[in-house]
Amino acid sequence: MLVLTACNNEDTQSTPDAENQGDKLTVGITQIVEHPALDAAREGFIEALQENGYDHVEIDTQIAQGDMNTNKTIAQKFVGDKVDLILAISTPSAQSVLSETSEIPVLFTAITDPVGAQLVESIESPGGNTTGTSDTHPDAIPNTMKSIVEFFPDAKNVGIIYNAGEQNSEVNVSRAKEVMDELGLTAVEAAISTTAEVKQAAESLIGRSDVIYIPKDNTVVAGLESVIAIANEHDIPLYVGESDSVKRGGFAGYGFEYHDLGYKTGEMAIEVFEGKSPAEISVQYPQSLELVINKKAAEEQGIEITDIMKEKATIIE
C-alpha cells in the first residue's frame, strides 16, 4: 500500500503519482448522513474510479449518521490509517477532515459554498490539500422562488425548515430570503438541530405557510418523509432543493444528478492519483439545471398541473 504520513503541522503534501498506480490505493469516504442525494454522489465517485482503471482501489466508507462527534472520529480514523485520499461528502464532513490533516489529499462533493466554509482559498485556485465539486448552481434558488410566484400567484408565506448549525443551510436560507424579499414573499422559518425534530417543525408551518421550501440541508433531507406527509395531508406545495428529493415526493425543485457530480469528483481523484495537486484543480459546479415536477406529489398535495408548469418543467411520474 502507498503510505502517506498525516501530520497537521507540516505544510508539505503527499500525493500518489502515476508510477504507483500498480500499488494498492486506499480511499476513505466520510459522509455526514445517508440520504439519496449524498448516496448517489458516493456511488458516482466509486463508479468513476472503477470505469477508469482504478477498480483496485480499496474503499473504506464511514457514515456519521448526523452525529458531529462521530464525524470527527471518522476524520481522525482516516488520518490515523494513513489513507491515500479522503472523499468528504457534505460540508460538515469536509470541515472535520480538514481540521485533522493538511497533508492527505482531500476531495469534497455536495458542498454549497466551499469558500464560505473555508475549505478552499478560491474556486479557481483552491490552494492547500483540497478541491472538489459544489452542488450549488447560482441560478437554482432564484429560479425556485420565481417559480413559486409564477405557479402560485396567491402565495405570500414560504415556510423554510433548516438546520441552523449547518453552514451550507445558512448560505441557502440567506440567499432564499434575499430573493423572497425582492419578490414580495415572506419567509416563515422553522429551525431544527436533529432529524428527529423535522416532523414537529413541519407541523409548526401548518396554517402559517402557503408553500414549504426545503433547502439543501442534510439534516432535514434525511427526514424528508415527515415533511412530505404533512404537505400531502394539508395540501401544501412542497418545494425542495434538489431533484432526488423531488423523486422522493417533493412537488418541485431545480436540480441535477448527484451521481454525475460524484462521478466528476472521481475523475478529479484520478488526476490526484496521477500526480496532480488538489491545489491546482479548480472547484467544479453542475453544468446543467432543470426544473422537475413530480406528478404524483402534485396530486397528493392538491395541485393541478397547469400549462405553464408543463412548459417550464420536466414532469416525472
Automatic annotation (TrEMBL):
Pfam families: ABC_sub_bind (PF04392). This is Sugar ABC transporter substrate-binding protein. InterPro entries: ABC_transpt-TYRBP-like, Peripla_BP_I. Signal peptide: none annotated. It comes from Bacillus solimangrovi.
